[in-house]
Design a protein that fits this description.
Number of strands: 6
Order of helices and strands: EHEHEHEHHHHHHHHEHEH
InterPro entries: AB_hydrolase_1, AB_hydrolase_fold
CATH class: Alpha Beta
Radius of gyration: 18 Å
Strand order of the largest sheet: 2-1-3-4-5-6
Protein name: AB hydrolase-1 domain-containing protein
Helix content: 40-55%
Pfam families: Abhydrolase_6 (PF12697)
CATH superfamily: Alpha/Beta hydrolase fold, catalytic domain
Number of helices: 13
Structural class: alpha/beta
Distance between the termini: 20 Å
Shape: globular
CATH topology: Rossmann fold
Length: 295
């Protein structure tokens, strides 16, 4: 989307979230806005999602090697900007750690964090868990203890088979009130339906099972490791009503990476409500990354 390779002044690569796909991209962003900022927007399916084949040996570091290959194959230039939504944030943090020379800057929308990072006390973990939905709490409690084949079975037989309308109805009932109201919009619920079906159908949720396995365990790096190698900026937007990703996690990340993280706290917003089909949010994200342009 946006500018052609020849016209673009910069490239923004989207790393999608859990149970999502390339179809989500930057939900609802207009071609006109991307053109205004001189942006070429690129979204692709991570391994095991949509049209991308699974990788049984996937690690966060290995995912960064795959990302670098995509950048080279598509000739996106020596450096790109990243936008990570929710679980996609884990892969953005990993990119800052493992391929910092290819990343110019990062925007994160309600990104997950690693509960096993140093500096996060058990008291903080317990406090964050209390703000989450029942499903998210169960993932944190049991996800890291279960072997991959159990997670694979769970996703394949219990989640992938209800992709689409059942998934949307579940989200409409269990997400926080701002997100429930947001999903009453036809364009929002329709995109979630198409995106979720695309995400889980081809490989029966293999990518989701991989994500659950990887993010529930230690990520293989600490926040301080990012600070040592990444010289760009990381901008985080987080709603304080989100019940999928704890608001407190972002303040912890900010406190440990004060020089490179800018935290944008969104009062009264959830996991989806501010980010999807909101031109003001898209403009703010692009302007923060690239600077303002004339209206």
């Amino acid at each position: 989307m946006g500018c052609t390779q020849q016209e673009a002044r910069r490239c923004l690569v989207v790393l999608h979230g859990l149970g999502s796909s390339r179809l989500a991209a930057m939900p609802g962003v207009t071609e006109e806005m991307l053109m205004k900022f001189g942006v070429r927007l690129v979204a692709f399916d991570r391994a095991g999602y949509g049209q991308s084949e699974p990788d049984p040996s996937m690690t966060l570091e290995g995912a960064c090697e795959d990302l670098e290959q995509v950048l080279d194959m598509l000739q996106l230039g020596p450096k790109v900007f990243l936008l990570g939504f929710s679980c996609g944030g884990a892969y953005c943090y990993a990119a800052a750690r493992f391929i910092p020379h290819r990343i110019a800057g990062i925007a994160l929308w309600c990104p997950i964090g690693c509960f096993q990072w140093k500096g996060i006390s058990q008291e903080a973990r317990d406090s964050m868990c209390r703000t989450l939905s029942q499903g998210s709490r169960a993932l944190l409690r049991y996800g890291g203890q279960l072997p991959f084949f159990i997670l694979r079975w769970y996703v394949s037989f219990l989640l992938a088979r209800r992709a689409g309308e059942a998934w949307v109805r579940h989200c409409q009932k269990t997400l926080c009130p701002p997100d429930q109201r947001h999903l009453q919009l036809h364009e929002a619920s329709n995109l979630m339906l198409r995106d979720n079906v695309e995400s889980l159908t081809a490989y029966e949720g293999y990518g989701m099972a991989t994500d659950l396995h990887l993010v529930s365990n230690h990520w293989g790096f600490e926040l301080e490791d990012i600070a040592e190698v990444f010289d760009g900026l990381i901008h985080i937007w987080q709603g304080d009503s989100d019940n999928l990703v704890p608001f407190q996690m972002q303040r912890i990340v900010k406190s440990q990476l004060p020089k490179i993280v800018n935290l944008h706290e969104l009062k009264g917003e959830g996991h989806l409500s501010w980010f999807c089909f909101n031109h003001a949010a898209h403009r703010e994200t692009l302007a923060t990354l690239f600077g303002e342009v004339e209206s």
